Fold these 4 entries.
Entry 1:
Amino acid sequence: MQTHKPPNRNSDLFASLKYDFPAGIAVFLISIPLSLGIALASGAPLFSGLIAGIIGGIIIAPLSGSALGISGPSAGIAVIVLSAIETLGFKGFLLSLLVAGIIQIIMGLTRAGVIAYYFPSSVINGMLSGIGIILFLKQIPHAVGYDLDYEGDTSFFQADSYSSFSELSHMLEYSSPTAIVIALISLAILILWEQPIMRHYRFFQLFQGVLTAIVVAVLINQGLQSFYPELALTGNHLVMVPVLQNSGDLLSQLHFPDFSQFNNPTIYLTALTLAVVASLKTLISLEAVDKMDPIKRVTSANRELIVQGIGNAFSGLLGGIPLAQVVVRSSINVQSGAKTKAAGVIYGLLLFFAVILIPTLLNKIPLASLASVLLVVGYKLIRPESFRVMYKAGLYHFIPFCMTILGMVFTDLLIGLTIGLITALFSILLENYKTAFYFNESHIGNKTILRLSEHVSFLNKANIQQTFEQLPDYSDVVIDATRSKYIDYDVYEIIENFKVEAQRKHIKLTIENLRGYGVLSPVENARAPTYDIQKALPPAKVLELLKEGNERFVNNLKSNRNLLEQINDTRQGQFPIAIILSCMDSRTSVELIFDQGLGDVFSVRVAGNVINDDILGSMEYACKIAGSKLVVVLGHSHCGAIKGACAHVELDHLSGLLHKIKPAVDAVNAEQSLAVTADNEDEVQKVSDKNVQLTVEQIRSKSTLLDGMVKSGEIDIVGAMYSIETGKVKFYGFDDKTILRENYSPALN
């Protein structure tokens, strides 16, 4: 027997390392200035940003369910942290961060992560493009050597009193030719590494573009320091990692919470604020990163909240600043080709060992080179194609998308996201108002069909009310609530009130499956008839059921059926309630016309709905053996066979069939003393009616079995005419003397 070996997870891990390791290096290099800059903006010790970055890699990455997400300090929380440190002191702030982590864990355990599924795609896409634009704008000054604004700043109005735009002109006064050259060389390397042809060479696969660009930048600047020191970049133009001389210095960088403030209410208010903001940033970033994932993995939002809570609790215990999953670092990870979360762990380990062992080497990295990397990342995040896609999606998606971008660029990340979400909410309300339910207006007569959706909330109230007010007098209205699983009481009340209004306006109102309000029980499935049901049905009741089915058909309604369920119901036997003889015309499927399902009726179809011995035998079987209670002869308007008989068509075997209709043609000729012509639609219709009448007579005259069953009341035989124009079926029957009953009309209205 052949056996299948389970997949070797270790081999998969090692196979992905060739992608994850370079990606981890790229994230590590970019994270150093970002972590330091955000710590500076937060008013915390610089080493706190590095602690948070290390925790994001070593603790959060292996526990997270996100394969490509990278966690670290977030610029969007810096303002909250700065205020908290000023109010509580740094150690008091660490206690609130510890509590915030616990709150996040509780949020994850209580499944609060479900909120992630309610972020509109337009806002997520807008956030990605917005961050891309911000990155691009913010890195241009660093690329030309103006480094007064800290790395990681995302606010429109900066600490140096300039905005993202005004700084672009102000920076020219302080530009550095060396920084510009290094930035351009780094950009050239990054662009060169992006070319498809380069991926065929092993050298370019082993040495990642980001690492190569930074190494070249360091070598250029070190060469200048050796030979042309006046041109070299120094000071705040380089990365500035705190240098640890010994283990004592490392311990001095660690800070611990002030548990003496345990009873301070401000601690918990700050903790709640931090937990909510960090969680929202994480959940939004989580959705964005999943969108960027080439293989579209889906991350558990609840698990991510728990893991982020663990990370923030550790950060609070060890003297770090708040963490969240961040788009910038995650996008670098994705763009660098990472495959698994091993890249995040590698980033954390590299950050830990590099800060301890080689801080002086890290401090040789020019910010201009890192700016080039972030310029490329920003461009890729902007994704011009996304503007076209969102525009094609419609204004209800395009406007929130644009408002998210504008809000983020001209304020900051959190305010911009809030603006985007509020705009999306209004767009959803407006879109819901415009398309509150399925609405179809038939082109036949004056019929309007309102098909309610699965969830009909108060948001639909205005649209439904307006639709009712616009309905003209004497119209025909159908309200179908079959699909509805929830109907708000306000909507239910409007429909109930409309019943009274409809009578006043002489509106013919049909309401299908309106089962109350609130959460509604499902509509029961129509099941195939059983032996007991079939036996208990009198012929008149069967006729009534067919009329009701045709009424549903005319109103574009149908019974709720599960065809697989009906297959199972009838696999042991069938108990149809009627046998229907109809024309073979493609427009006269009796199961559709009478809204019947599997096992409900026998269907016999032949051109001109004529009979022969085989058809009579089938009818006798259906009624005497299978228990059917009604025989229906169904003609239809504009019947091709009837026209052929009226035109005396002769064509091989067809001639014999049309001769069976000739008695009806002769009868109409005799009644009107004028020969019927196939071009006269009224005369052809009279022949159709007469053909149905004569077929019913022939069934009873040729089958003594069926005639006897009619006389005993076991079955009935009726004629009917289907209008292909309106979908309506008009029934008529015959007494023993073959005289039309009073409800028969020879002309179809």
Note: The first strand starts at residue 71 and ends at 73.
Entry 2:
Amino acid sequence: MSAAGVVGYAQLSMADPAAWRATGSAWASLAGVAERRSSELTDDAADLRAAWSGSAAESADSRLARLRGELVALVPAAIETDQVLAEFAARLVAARAQLAAAVALAAATGVLIDRRGGVRADPVRMQTDRTGTAVAQVATALREALVLAATADGEATARLARLAEDAGTGWTAQPPSYRPPAPGEPALVRRWWAGLTPAERRWLVVHEPELTGRLDGIPADARDQANRLLLVARRAALVERWEQLLARVPRGPLELAGLRGVEAAMSGLDALVARLESSQQPRAYLLGLDVAEEGRAVVALGNPDRATDVLTYVPGMTAGLDDATGELGRAHRVLTRCAELAPDAQTSAVLWLDYDAPDFLHEAAWDGQARAAGESLHRFQEGLRATHEGPPARQTVLGHSYGSLVVGTTARDHGLAADALVFVGSPGVGVAHAADLGLPPGQVWASSAPDDVIRLTRPPDELALRAALGASPVGAIAGWLAGPSDELWFGRDPAGPGFGGRTFPSGRYGHTGYWHPDNPALDGMARVVLGR
């Protein structure tokens, strides 16, 4: 092994990914400091204008405005530094997992690895007829781990060097002359973005975060920077709604329900911000946020533009901003299981909560909200394809409960940029057969727990027929709950034998237990994401 390789082995053995992640988080915290100082300067400038006039006052006000602009322009750079270091830390984790696998292989096959990374046969344990093969296998495994670490180190160094160079030439420039329509075709948006200078992109992040943060086709790192810039304003909007409802006297049931809803949304947003600001791996990327009504959020764990496997998770009924971190936890559990099954894999999971999920059963009985979500989900998946770096990632879209109907109707009506679809706890997906979803049936998967109440639903026409035949309400309900059926409320059960897809098992964990650590369904979801 070369001298460089020996040094690389020692460095990788002692590398601490958590320390790099914490360093990135510390850089991100500077963004908050810059924003607070900018806000303070705004207040100071207002006080100054009220007490001072004349040319000197105008000059001072102008200088304060420039200083505020420079502080705000630093925010995306601090966030970008965090992104770079977080991604470097994640790849170090994968490289160290490969290194650990190589060491385990050496121990199992009688190969010795010295402290400098040298590889040789153990003369006591090694059988002569397979000495060369075993040593070569271990050496290859070590080399692959070192190459991954060296590649990650080189890329992170280059990205940080570009940031340092930009600091000397100015973070932002004049605004670009053209803006794509919103929403635009993701591939066209990506080409437009690629044609801008780094300074023009930062100008858009700083001065037009609303546009930059929501456009599919803009890379995840820029969207994350823009949407983080909007967090303070988003919470202020929630507080304003809460104060407006609080001021209404007398307050009736609607106002009280509205107050509770806004309070829940504020609590959910605070929890989401805490996750965004934590040094927990994988790093969270905020790809979309809306605080209107129940609220919406699109959050990726790990950068989907740099992952080899990307999961998009669409939650079901009652999903909203109030429990976005809970839904994100489900996506995280799939990622964790992926890491256990394939420690060297680079996987990202996205919580796609960018639709108006039903809040009540009478809303969930219709497919209108699923159909309304179709264009947005279609465009988001196209955007993931457009912004991905390197070879295309394996993209999997997972829908739970009503979210499975969202995924199914989107695939049916618009098409989905996906390599696999997964449905769990589904009431039907809007089609009669897996072949109607636009993917090979072998890449359409489903699971339904034996005790999931969703299995007891019946098509609305069957219930209507029972009523027309004069069945009593008790009899109708008894028939409705008679047992599982291949025909569910929104079509044939995707986990049933007649649907034509593939299935994986689930234990008896009910309608929401597919992500339970002991449920084999969690393994099933992870294996589909990994394509294994």
Note: The mean pLDDT is 87.
Entry 3:
Amino acid sequence: MNPKHNGFEQYSKDPSASCEPFDLNGQELTRQEMKTMLDSSPAGIGLVKNRVLGWSNDIFYSMLGYESNSLKGKNTRILYADQKEYDRVGINLYSKVDKYGMGIVETKLVRKDGSLLDFRIRASNLDKEDPSKGIIVVITDISELKLLQVQLQQAQKMEAIGVLAGGISHDFNNILMGIQGHLSLMQIDVSATEKVTAHAKHIGRIVKTAAELTGRLLGFARGGKYQISTLNVNELLSLALNIFKPTRKDIIVHEIYEEKPHLVDADQSQLEQVFLNLLINASQAMPEHGDIFVTTQNTFIKEDHDYPFKVQPGRYIKVTIKDTGIGMDLEIQNKIFDPFFSTKEIDDKKGRGLGLSTVFGVVKNHGGFILVDSEKGKGANFHICLPASNNIQIKEIKEESKAFEHMQKGSETVLLVDDEEEIINVGKNFLEKLGYKPMIARNGLEAVEIFKLYKDEISLVVLDLIMPKMNGKQAFAEIKNIQENAKILISTGYAVDDKIEGFLNRGCHGFIQKPFSLNKFARILRKILDNT
């Protein structure tokens, strides 16, 4: 940070102290009139120097819940939740002021009552000829806008899932047909051990495919905060295409991937939404048939780039989605990323416009940018550039399939809690085959009562989350009240999210997502039970 721009402007003069006139577009204003105008502004305005707040208008204080002038002379660190955010805003804002004469940054500021609100801060030099005099800042409350953006994004996700529903049901029907077919053949070949084993293996592979499809849908549909991990864009595009392709059999998709693409630090479900929205928009631009070209390419952006906007130089991965559809004229191209803009008519299922404002927002929040080039009648090209990660990829460890005689077994008592009869039957058989003594509860209330009676015998509770009478969250708390060190394994069909991570932070010993194999169940049981 430039040392001459490291703070809020301290301004000692009272704007009402003099009647010296100001000239504003030919109209003279006294200092009192100027003060009235500043105090009437719908935005908070303040003067800043050396990270110390000077004069600010009344709306500045009311937005933050303080009495007028109560922060004058104080360091603005008081307005930030932590030092990291305080430093981030300072570096981001003042570097832009130095380079462009004006800076804009979004952050959360702490009000006097401790609550956090989303604000957009604009800043510029108070005196362009003498930056040492500090800066003038303008703050606006964007909390409602942020909420609307989240709601819009989730609504567009749901719209996308609606468009994809036909293809998803097609995939699941194929999966169910495969399971039904092998079950029918097993009944015929019941005495042929080798054939039964082969059918069982096929069913296992099909179930795994179904679980992966469900997992993608759960990840795509969830809302909430970003969950950043290091990702391979080629793999994300492949997953998105697996969901998209069944929806339009009349479209040919051509895929050309960079052999060793730069990895990106991103939220998986958010990027999947970006790719799915662009694929759906491309398909809607081709009502009859056509081609979509999906490519990835490593690229490096230099300091002296030709982009007409600020871009951080460095390594990027470029994703291009091209269609042979109706295309767009320049007027539409200039509007397609605006919130709520659409070329669709009411009840129109064709045309472009699904979620492009969301696409723009997600890409921007990941430090990237998006470009479009198109001509009427000649299709459209969407180019997404995402900054490369500095992390190295961690190789995914695949589950090792073991023969039953080599699986880890035990003899402890395990309380299995689930309201689905099929899950109870399978879970009870799993436990018995592995040598455990199962106890069964069909809802949370029953689980708590059983645990009260047999807490000294029960070594582990396998707990579902969604149940009648008492859900898993309540049962978890009750069991922990009875025995603080009780070992609990959460078992659910939902994907890992903030709620489940919360359980892990409150003394839960593990999480297993349905459907799971006997081998995986055996391994996680012993891992928890042996961890004393």
Note: The CA atoms of residues 254 and 293 lie 5 Å apart.
Entry 4:
Amino acid sequence: MTRLFRWQNISSYLNWFALLCLSAFGFIGFYLLRNPEQLDLLGISGLISMGLIGIWRWSWWALQVIRSRIYLHWVFPRWRKQADRIPLDKLPPVCLLVPTYKEKPWITERVFRVIAQEAQSLSHPLTLLVTSSSDEENTAILKVLKSVDPELSCIRLIQMVQTGEGKRKAMADGLRELARLNLPQNAVVGLMDGDSELTPGTLRRCLPFFRLFPKMGALTTDELPIVEGSYLFSEWLHLRLSQRHYQMCSVSLSQKVMCLTGRFSLFRAEAALHPTFADQLELDTLDDWLWGQFKFLSGDDKTTWYWLLRRGYDMLYIPDVIVYSIETISGSLMDRAYQNMRRWYGNMLRNSDRAIGLGPGKAGWFMWYCLLDQRISYWTTLITPGSLSICLVQGYWLAAGLILCWILCTRPIILTIIFWGRQSRLKPIHLPVFLIAQWSSCIIKIWTQMNLAQQKWSNRGNQSISAAGSGWERLVKVSVSRFLYVSQLFGFVIILCWFASLLSPLQDVAGLWSNSSWAMSQSVPPQIIEAIDHGIIPNDGKDDAKSLQALINRLSGEDPVQINLPIGEIDLFYPIEINRSHTIIKGQGMRRTILQAHISETETEAVLVIRPHEHPLTEKAESDQNQIQDIHLSGFTLREKSLNSTENISAIGSILLENVVKSSLKNLDLSNSSNRALILRNTEDVTVEYVLPETAFKKKE
């Protein structure tokens, strides 16, 4: 045993060390890969937007952690000392209501054996009301209780058989039965599941708080999982309950909780035995704008929580009392995890709106903001994986590496803080589980908020509820919910691309309108040429200038021609010159199409030169005869980089227009540090819109 204990300690230290090494590796990678040019990919607005969101989210998380530590190490220990001084005979009498439905015999034996032992530790007899699936199950429970207390001297047992209408109906009937017993006014009613195992001393350590806090309506405890059948599911629950622990501690500092778990919670009898408590528990409904009115299938713990919150009761979390949650996993692990998340997050979303509607006066300012944050956090959490996906799709490998290093640096630190001081042991497997669960849960929450009426409870007799109706009514409701789901995700992607400066919706719309207006004004529609079909291949690191210049030189006649540049980085080792009228060079958007100019000759006047074949004459009359018109450049970024680090490229312009009329430059990013980004000579009627930097402009008549 000693060797096993030592090995467990060594293994635990190794796990912590491995995760901290991952964090250090991520930090080193983040430092080595930092690159101002890659950060410039986001632009100033993108950096500010992402930075502000990051500061907000990390500050909120840090506040939650600080509050939880204050509660755990300062506030609650003082309450515990006061609670432990209350004599056993001064504790209120307790009643336990335990609905159980076809649980495995070994689970039933563990659960009710501990209940009988807890009853023997109290000065007052424990009233135990069990509502099960059948008389046979009740007989098995009675046998377990008598194996501990043969005469049931410490237990007042009441057994009922469920009507088959679900857990809510069974609990409501049990509460009404308890209300007919004329229990003492100071009694406490416990609601717990038939697969929840109390630890020794649970009741003795929880009941004193009802004496300490007269306004407290209920309390709940910490949980640890016992999982049979799946290692991954077990570690996921350990992670989830560790996250729940610090969040509950933080909120309990304000004497509120986010949920009174159905696993085990204790209620003041004046609340639990109130007629409206059982009525709402049995039939809790929501009137949704899309699905109409429907009843709740699961989420009894959220219903009891909302009932107390609405009436202004305080609630507490007891962090030093643990209840074991027993789970048996069979069949598809992914399906079970998905169904559990659908149920958990559905219960959360169905109740958060009406709780927010109570206002901070009832909920308390901190918890009221926590409820608001629940509706925001699943969008902000998707920013990191969304940005990573965009970088991978666009081929921005260095930026993707930076994001991955950021994840490796920060997530192990989060896990270390979450598991600090927990009985659950931190393991390297928690890192991928944490990322997968965090990101997938956001998608499920977004889907669930559009499908609140769709409910399923797989491990309670495979119950399900749908308010979609039938026929055309169902088709319309389901179609609207799917459309809203897809449109929300699409809108999020657009906003994320906007933040990352990969899209400029306002500029794109303005450019589209301008281009369409120009196209309508032309008698002949332009010929569309895709540059990628002519050897201009982005992101290959090879020179594309010769292919692009050859394509332009091959254009004959005076008919309008539009050359569409592809998304990605196009390398130019030589300047490009346009000498014909009616030419359109169009990229796919600033920072999506990037012309990377590798300058090797300091005498080069500009990267893009637009002028007639003949050199301009000095006399204006002759100059007017040597003009080109209808040149339109839009939708790309032009960057300049010298092949020789000693060369000075500050004197090299980005775009030169000479003897050009009736043309436009729109939606361009000219990354030029000099005042020669845009040079205009002998030009007339040239429209310049959304060209950055706007100050880098030089005009010569």
Note: The two ends are 92 Å apart (CA to CA).
